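Allow me, if you will, to draw on your knowledge of protein folds for a short while. A protein sequence and the structure tokens that stand for its backbone fold form the material at issue. I would ask you to consider whether the tokens describe a fold that such a sequence might reasonably adopt. Thank you for your consideration; the sequence and its tokens are set out here:
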Amino acid sequence: MDGILNIYKEKGFTSHDVVAKLRGIVKQKKIGHTGTLDPDASGVLPVCLGKATKVCDLLTDKDKTYEAVMQLGVVTDTQDLSGKILNKQDVTASEEEIREAVMSFTGVYDQIPPMYSALKVNGKKLYELAREGKVVERKPRQVTIHKISILEIDMVKKTVTMTVECSKGTYIRTLCQDIGGKLGCGGAMAQLKRTRVSSFLLDDSITLAEVERLMAEGTVEEKLIPVDSLFEHLDAVTVSKKYQKYVDNGNKIEISFLTLPVTTSKNQEFRVYDENNRFVGIFEAENRRFLKPKKMFL
């Protein structure tokens, strides 16, 4: 199978677990996920199968949306409530002060990645070092919080429920800790659900159990999202049958090889198909005469 399944990752599974279980369910080895989701988190995890694994990196780079619950008044070593408590403090801030602190993180800010993360330092994952009791210096990374919507502030439980639309590489655990730090009482992530990765939405996701059922019914391919759907924002062009060998061999092609002429600008990208409507790949305009392959999916 070649395409993308919009998987709902349930709590307790690692992203690697999802891939391993899917390999067993669909009896296919070439599978990759599109961005790690914490074991305690749930939600959208697009998984690429077959030729679609070529877009794993592309989807990892896309914007995401999360629904999170932040617990104020506590700091942990993992920045969420699964970790060891390092500090507890009374929350003295008012609801308005909490709201202002949360909203102040909208925009671009420098975020220091957590020790309990899969980022590598000198070839070793940070969480491996953290489990050894080691703390290493991490350089801040610029992330963008496009939008924060506060759904509820519970002044009794001292929790904030919010949705966060953010750029790639944003750690919601760290955001919660940073908000708590700004309020002077500390903060940690209590719950996390990813509701969107690019155009992949929570409402359209399916569980591993559903994939298993669909496999048994022989209908799983109905849920398989074709690779070219990720590039619908690009103009589509078709190569004439007599020139098909050029694209099959990964060569650049002349504009005259297309069934219909197109006007190009330098570096403009196109979805290229053959006359059987088979998706060939993404080609880029080298000049007004030639298109060169950028990413092939044959």
In short: The chain has three domains: 3-61+199-228, 64-197, 234-296. Residues 23 and 29 are 6 Å apart (CA to CA). DSSP finds seven helices and 18 strands in the chain. The chain has a mean pLDDT of 92.
